[in-house]
Amino acid sequence: MAKPEFEFGPVDRVEFTDCTPHIEGLSEAILARDDSSDAVTRILKFEPGTDTSPNGALRHDFWEEVFIFSGSFRDLRLNQVFKAGDWATRPPGMEHGPWVSEEGARMFEVRYYPREEA
C-alpha cells in the first residue's frame, strides 16, 4: 500500500516517539509511511544536548532527503555545523553522522527506496 492520502492538518497533532535504536533526546514524528516499502516522511527532533555517537556513522539502503528547519547540529565525522536552511540528499550507502546538537534541531525527512529496474 502507498502512503496514505492526507489533506492539510497541523503537524503538532502528530506524536513524537523514540527512534530505533534509542538515543536519548532523539525522537521522530512519522507523518506518512508506506508499509509495503517502508518509505517514510517524518520530522526528526534533536533535543538540546543530543549526541548520536552511540550509533556511529550511518549507512542505509534507501535514499534520504533532509531539510533542517530549526536549530543546528555538528557532524562529528566532518567537523562541520549544519543549521536551519541547510539540506542534504543522500543516496543509498552514503556515510553520514554521527551528530551532536547543543541547541537542538528539527528536520523534515523523506526516505524512499530505489526503483527496481524492469
Report on this structure.
This protein has 118 residues and is an all-beta fold. It has a single domain, classed as Jelly Rolls, CATH 2.60.120. It has no helices and 9 strands. Strands 1, 2, 3, 4, 5, 6, 7, 8 and 9 form a 9-stranded antiparallel beta sheet that branches. It is globular. The mean pLDDT is 93.
**How far apart, in Å, are the first and last alpha carbons?**
20 Å
Uncertain residue segments: none
State the secondary-structure class. mainly beta
In what range is the share of β-strand residues? 35-45%
Q: What oligomeric assembly is this protein in?
A: single chain
> Could you give a short account of the major beta sheet?
9 strands, antiparallel
Shape: globular
CATH architecture: Sandwich
Average per-residue pLDDT, rounded, comes to: 93
How many DSSP H or I helices? Answer: 0
- Tally the beta strands: 9
Radius of gyration: 14 Å
Helix content: under 10%
How many separate structural domains?
1
Domain ChrR-like cupin: 17-108
Pfam families: Cupin_7
Protein name: Cupin domain-containing protein
InterPro entries: ChrR-like_cupin_dom, RmlC-like_jellyroll, RmlC_Cupin_sf
